[in-house]
Amino acid sequence: MKSRFSRWALVGALALLLSGCGYNEFQRLDEQTQSAWSEVLNQYQRRADLVPNIVATVKGEAAFEQGTLTKVIEARAKATSIQVTPETLNNPEAFAKFQAAQGELSSALSRLLVVSENYPNLKANQGFQDLRVQLEGTENRITVARNRYIQAVQAYNVLARSFPSNLTAMVFGYTVKPTFSVQNEAQLSVPPTVDFDKK
Fold this sequence. Notes:
By secondary structure, the chain is mainly α. It has a single domain (about 25-180), classed as de novo design (two linked rop proteins) (Up-down Bundle), CATH 1.20.1440. Helices cover about 75% and strands about 0% of the residues. Helix 2 packs antiparallel against helix 3 (about 65-80), helix 2 packs antiparallel against helix 6 and helix 3 (about 65-80) runs antiparallel to helix 4.
């Protein structure tokens, strides 16, 4: 009887300790982070699915710059070839690799849209314009999804670094999660060159 009571007392003490040390909060925030990450992946997949239609439409413009199209196709292939697993969220190197591949695709698509302005037939093509609107909408959704993910990771990382929950993090192996960062931060500090004399 006495050992039974001591076991229940131990279980009760552990439950009280775990609830007060942030364990349940880690569970909640980890799930929130994974959910936000899934939405980011959904939007990236939506963009990747649009690329073949855009490429097919642009190929119809006979004189279109082949190099620009090739870069878009290669960037999409690279972005979709990276295997994303739940461990990606806890691996800064894998996360950075994924982020770099998505950045290359964004860059290639931006270049394609800028170049397309030089082709009147393409600008007049309703199918291309519809795809362009869908792509712009998807880019906006990616931005929103990434912002939600950044906020979820921030809440999780604050818990992982704060006392006394950082002790729980150490005991249970909750490490700080990587978040999206700006590539080429140094370039942001350089003001753009504006030349109004060019015609």
